[in-house]
Amino acid sequence: MDVWTDNRIINVFEQGEIRLYDKEKHKDHFTFFLWEKEVVDSIVWHIDDIMHYSSGVNPFRYMTGVTFNKPGDYKFNLLVYKDSKVVKQANLTIRAIAGKDFFNVNWENPPTRSIVGQSFSYKKGYRIDQTYIKGQYPYSYVNLYYGDQFRKQTPEKEKEYLMEVAHESFGSPTLTTTNNQQAELNDKYSKLFKNKLNHLPIAIWERGTSSIALVGTPKDAIETYQIIAEPQY
User: Fold this and answer.
1) Which of 32, 76, 155, 163 is most open to solvent, judged by the fewest CB atoms within 10 Å of its CB?
2) Rounded to 5 degrees, what are φ and ψ at 63?
3) Distances from the Cα of 98 to the Cαs of 13, 49, 60, 113, 178, in angstroms?
4) How many C-alpha atoms does 22 have within 13 Å on its Cβ side?
5) pLDDT for the residue 19
6) CB within 8 A of 44, min separation 6: which ones?
C-alpha cells in the first residue's frame, strides 16, 4: 500500500489529488480497495493544520483533494488502524509555491470561472476563497468564507489571517501602515490600481506581474479585509 500524487509541486490555491493504491499490483497508481471490517477499523488522512479526515471502512475513501493557501513543504500521512493500532501507513511530501502571477491566476491566460481556488484548515477552522473578476481591468481577490463550520471573525482577526497568507507568499510589503503614513499608501494604491474600489489599503506589494494589496472595506467603516491584485500596467 502506498500513496501518490501526480504533482508534488503545486501552486497555492490549486487543487491536487492524493490517491491510495496497491504498490505491488498497480503501477498506474490507481486501486479500488474493498477491505472488510476484519482488516481495518478506520483510515486517517492527515496534513498538519490543513487536513485531518478519519473514516470507517464503509464508505472507504481511496482519493482526496488538497489545497494550500501558503507556500511551504507539507507532509501527508495516511494511517490504517485496526484495534486502535496502526497496521499500515504511507506518506509523501508536497511543496506548495506561489508560482502564478497572483496565487492561482495567470493574467495572460485568465481563468474561465470566477472562483479559482479554495483552501481549508481543519485546525484553525477557516476556508479561504480566491475569486477572479473579468472586465476591462481584471482583478482577483482572496477573502475568508464564513459558514456553519467557521463563524464570523473580527476584522482585526481577518487582517491577521490574510497578512500572514500574503507575507508568506510575497515577502515583506513595499508599503505598510506600520511603517508609512496612510496618505502615502492611499496615493500608491490609487496609482497602481485601475479599479477604484471602496478600499482602504493596509499593505502593498509590487511583484513582477502583479500589484497586490491587503485592504479593508468599506474604507470609511471597515467591516472586512481582502487581499486584492491587478496585473501591472
Assistant:
1) 32
2) -155, 150
3) 9, 19, 33, 20, 25
4) 8
5) 84
6) 52, 53, 54, 77, 78, 79, 81
56-108: pLDDT as tens digits: 766 567 778 899 999 999 999 988 888 888 988 889 999 999 888 999 999 99
What is the residue whose three cell numbers read 500521512? 77
Coil, strand or helix at 149: coil
Give burial (CB, 10 Å; 0-12/13-18/19+) of 78: buried
DSSP notation for 12-40: TT--EEEEEE-TTT-TTS-------TTT-
Residue 164 backbone phi and psi in degrees, to 5: -60, -45
Q: Which of 5-9, 53-57, 207-211 has the lowest average pLDDT?
A: 53-57
pTM higher than the cut 0.70? yes
Q: Which residue has the cell 496609482?
A: 191
Of the candidates 216, 214, 225, 218, the residue with the CA atom closest to the CA atom of residue 198: 218
Helices (H), 87-176: 155-170
Backbone angles phi, psi at 7, to 5 degrees: -140, 110
3-state secondary structure of 75: strand
